[in-house]
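Data card: per-record layout.
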Amino acid sequence: MYPNSPLLKSDIAGVARLVTDATTGITDLVEAMHARIARPPGFPAGAAAGRTSGITGFVYGAVRGVTRAVGVGVEALIDLAPAFGSDAPAPQRDALVAALNGVLGDHLVATGNPLAKPMELRHDGRALPDDPAELAARLPEAASGVIVFLHGLCMTEGQWVRAGRDRGAELAADLGLTTLRLDYNTGLHVSQNGAALAARLEALVDQWPRPLERIVLVGHSMGGLVARSAEIHAVEAGLRWRNLLTDMVFLGTPHHGAPLEKAGHWLDVVLGATPYAAPFARLGRVRSAGIADLRHGALHEDDRKGGAGVGVFADRRRPRPLPADVECWTIAAATAQADNRFADGVIGDGLVPLASALGQHRDPARALAFPTDHQRVVRGIGHLEPMWSDEVFEQMRAWLARPAAPSAVG
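The structure for this 410-residue chain is written out next.
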């Protein structure tokens, strides 16, 4: 564990549960291998698939039982020991939990693990209250518009702040907007997070201290896919906040996926690039639902139901164009200092190729029609740096500062 990175009591219980899950999972795998080796081809199975019989099966069952008992005991001990763990989160702890959610977030939710992150809209590092009166007291100077920043895989909302500087808050102040940041479990399907964000923004329309007139979404990497997914869900459900959406800005978003994920290496690279996530890099073969969606940039549950193409790497997405009545802007990063067809096409920003970040696709039906003046390539920086780049935020300021046509909720 990193120094000065205290875990909460619930975190320790969650880790204990993960250890239990991992141990029983390994036991299942070893037993399945044992059963296969012990039963030559053509011989009938004497036990359930993947299970051994007789004394061997009894031993494996005992290992599972003891492991589960130990896990339950650890959680009970934590409940009985108030001094176990910290009472206050820390940035290091948040980054560790965010990394774990990116890797195993769907499993954490499925097993009811307390380490699973809830989705929250946050301001100044604190979750927005649901009560309108409390929200009004918290934000007495709330603007009539909001700009919402969405982080990417394995990250936290606090990582938009770099070296004590919050460029998002500076941008919001210049635009006369209130800055909000979304914190969410990046291990869930993009479509799950998109639907949840759509519902959360709809609730915000009623909870906001004054009538909302403008909503701007800024998504980095996976966050851009979540923003697009939320917009699609809002249209399908006829949600009111969609009428207030004036702009979506995408920073290094893999609109058409990333070859590193297709090759099974996205996780290793992004975890290696995220300081507190490095301990989880050894889980390189683990693929959460969210990471799997990065393979092609899936936005909707229908994109996973099949269609054209065969094989595990087939792109089954339905073509989903950009919304015609929303200004959409995209910024792609590139590690190469100058135009380089190979580097831009394969490496891009280290994770996302230039064409994917710009929405380009060989199939015209899938290509995203960003106007030329709605695109920008920033060179000499990697995948994470658009979150803190002065050049990137100056470009967003220039794009978003134009007068926005007033919208009405109806």
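Known properties of this structure: The first strand starts at residue 120 and ends at 123. The radius of gyration is 23 Å.

See the next section for split statistics.
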